[in-house]
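Journal club prep — side note

Before the paper discussion, L.F. wants everyone to see what a predicted structure for a comparable chain looks like in token form. Sequence:
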Amino acid sequence: MSAITAHKDPKLPPPVDLPEGADWVKALALFDPHVAETLVAVARTLYPHEGLPERVYRRTVFHFDAMAAKAPGAAQTFAEFVDLVDGALPMPFLELTESYRLQVLKGIEATTAFQLVQRSTVRFLYDDLEVWQAFGYEGASVHLGGYVKRGFNDLDWLPDPPPGV
């Protein structure tokens, strides 16, 4: 199986290039390391994909941080969320096992804070070019000549259309 190359519309900004390792948090405008790493753990717990590297979850949290930096209400809601997950059990969320993490998240899923984090994770995680490639989605093709010219005209399982169509 050949590797998939995903494409986004070139008019959109390129993916964020975060430093590897613990230094990635230095790229954040607002979140401290604990908040950032807790949100990474939450994103991975909500949407666990074995083949996805930590950097895609970090980029998701980078987008959370950008949201929070622009909107004080969002910043407060993210902070409330981390307080909720850290205060649910005697240990911080980061130190919990996967089953306890799930228990904590299920316990707060009706809160506004949970809904912001869950919906924002869907929005940013699944709009990541590296995630698209990992899942085999090739993305936009208009700027590449469309789908037909990229091998998607191989409908050999359908009969040929009638002449003149």
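L.F.'s comment for the group: Residues 8 and 140 are 5 Å apart (CA to CA). Keep this in mind when we get to the figures.
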